Amino acid sequence: MARVLVTGASGFVGRQVVEQLLAAGHEVHAACGRQVLDGPIVHQLDLLEPGAAAALVARVRPQRLLHLAWCAKPGVYWTSPENIGWVRTSLELLEAFQCHGGEQAVLVGSCAEYDWSGEGVCHEDSTPLLPATPYGRCKNATRELAELFGQLHDMPVAWARIFHAYGPYEAPGRLVPAVIGALLKGEPARCSHGEQLRDLLHVADVASALIQLAQGGVQGAFNIGGGQPIRLREVIEYLARQLNAEHLLQFGAIPVALNDPPLLIADNQRLLAQGWQPRFDLHSGLDDALAWWRGRI
Amino acid sequence: MARVLVTGASGFVGRQVVEQLLAAGHEVHAACGRQVLDGPIVHQLDLLEPGAAAALVARVRPQRLLHLAWCAKPGVYWTSPENIGWVRTSLELLEAFQCHGGEQAVLVGSCAEYDWSGEGVCHEDSTPLLPATPYGRCKNATRELAELFGQLHDMPVAWARIFHAYGPYEAPGRLVPAVIGALLKGEPARCSHGEQLRDLLHVADVASALIQLAQGGVQGAFNIGGGQPIRLREVIEYLARQLNAEHLLQFGAIPVALNDPPLLIADNQRLLAQGWQPRFDLHSGLDDALAWWRGRI
Questions:
Q1: Is B134's CB within 8 Å of A141's CB?
Q2: Are residues A221 and A74 in the same domain?
Q3: What residues does the NAD-dependent epimerase/dehydratase domain cover (chains A, B) (predicted)?
Q4: What pLDDT does A36 receive?
């Protein structure tokens, strides 16, 4: 049992992390911007406020840090100047964490750090880091600085690059909720051709991977993904079959964005070597998402 | 006349910047960690304290920012973890500056951002950025983030890469003061072979270059150097001649560091295009340094 600080605790991934840490018996401190959660010790604050992160860490003195907070507003976060504030806040957190006796930090990155124009299977060591967006550039800069900070202070800092998470509380505009939402309402689901291969992972498995990395003594970048290429068309058709709504699918109705690569998946060998195993496969994961959205739409 | 905030104002370059800004009639706010200066409005504070930079900027509301503060402790700054705190503080400053109506920021970088294993003449656009030290990596990360911040907010941010400054208040262990100090005391000046070609610039000219960049509407990276390769042996021999102490020179007494490149100079065309001209040539600059140290050793 450890004292753990989770930032972004009311977010899509954060709430799963908090739930699993509580279930494992840890003392969980949850930093949230807006919503208040049941269960953990909640610290409601604006982490972007200079000094707020350091003051929180000084109060909590966590042994482990899972830093998930970042700007995530759909349609905005890719190019928001707030990304730079999150670099600053991440450094402030990390410095305070080390200063107050922190033992293991896990920070969250993204597949957006990688060069997407390459072969599509991303390896932590060999795939070039060539982020195309302000979001990706700020994540990558944070990674570089966090890694250096860990080296200079001899403190383990793990960097978790999330690929494509789905599940409860996902933003409604994203693929899985958008398809489920349309079909549950009996409306057409307008999709692209759906031939893209992606690395979808249920958010509970993303959370368990982050917690695995927080065990202690873990350093460097880790791809967080299932490691299997999943055709988006297969996801969409599976959801439609479960809802008897295949007639509502409109493949090809939406163009594929120019920067949308045909293949983008994680080599997850480094994560697997940490002992992590996912709980869901694609079908059981989508069933879970479906059940959750059914009660809400 | 403008309201200007100078950080690192009591430092080697900072005090020259403050002096020249005051002489030009500006309202100068000087942020200093330790020493107090005469002339500007002094704000004594620890800029690394989270929130301190933002609070200062909110109080001063400067139109121009010249951010020179950084860790500079000789022998320590190349690898100090404090470099990461200076990245954070630089971002905090820049964000607050923009938020409170700032018009032109000038941040200070270093030739240590460049790949030193290349041809040795550094161009802002074409020389690879491949810093070999934590100091260089943190400067380069700050540059990337500051540049992005400027783009996203449409605020001009200039990045001044200083090469080799010398003059009053230089750290005593560095080349020019070390040679002068030894010779003034009648002690042997132990030197390397002295064949290295460097870009030496008097600190007053470094300061005037930074002020030139702060005029407004200036973006991107600028090499701050004289643009002329100067053999260190020539510097050392000139100083010795002025002091009638050539017999005290011991060339070859010290090995050259492995990572010390034979040639490292600035292409300064971009700076010259801004209208900057140096006041000192090598001899008049060294004479000035000599006169200053004479009164102090």
A1: no
A2: yes
A3: 4-225
A4: 75
Alpha carbon distance A54, A103 (integer Å): 16
Q: Specify whether A212 is located in the same domain as A247.
A: no
On whether both A25 and A119 belong to a single domain, the answer is yes
Position B9 in a domain: yes
Same domain, B121 and B28: yes
Give, in order, the Cα–Cα distances in Å from B58 to each of B102, B266, B293: 11, 36, 39
Q: Which residue of A has its CA nearest to B78?
A: A152
> Can you state the angle between helices A175-184 and A282-294, rounded to 10 degrees?
50
Question: Does one domain contain both B110 and B51?
Answer: yes
Assess whether B22 and B121 both reside in one domain: yes
CATH of the domain at B233: 3.90.25
Q: How many Cβ pairs closer than 8 A exist between chain A and B?
A: 77
B133 and B255 assigned to the same domain: no
pLDDT tens, N- to C-terminus, chain A (297 residues): 999 999 999 999 999 999 999 999 999 999 998 777 789 999 999 999 999 999 999 999 999 999 999 999 998 999 999 999 999 999 999 999 999 999 999 999 999 999 999 889 999 999 999 999 999 999 999 999 999 999 999 999 999 999 999 999 999 999 999 999 999 999 999 999 999 999 999 999 999 999 999 998 999 999 999 999 999 999 999 999 999 999 999 999 999 988 889 999 999 999 999 999 999 999 999 999 999 999 887
What is the phi-psi region of residue A39: left when phi exceeds 0, alpha when psi lies from -120 to 50, beta otherwise? Answer: left
What CATH number does residue B81 fall under? 3.40.50.720
Among A55, A92, A144, the residue with its CB nearest the CB of B88 is A92
Label residue B186 exposed, middle or buried (CB < 10 Å: 0-12, 13-18, 19+): exposed
Rounded to whole angstroms, the Cα distance separating A105 from A98 reads 9
Q: Are B158 and B219 in contact (CB under 8 A)?
A: yes
> Per-residue pLDDT tens for B75-93?
899 999 999 999 999 999 9
Interface pTM, i.e. ipTM: 0.95
Judge whether A56 is closer than 8 Å to chain B, CB to CB.
Answer: no
Domain that holds residue B20: 3-165+199-228
Number of domains comprising chain A:
2
Same domain for B97 and B83: yes
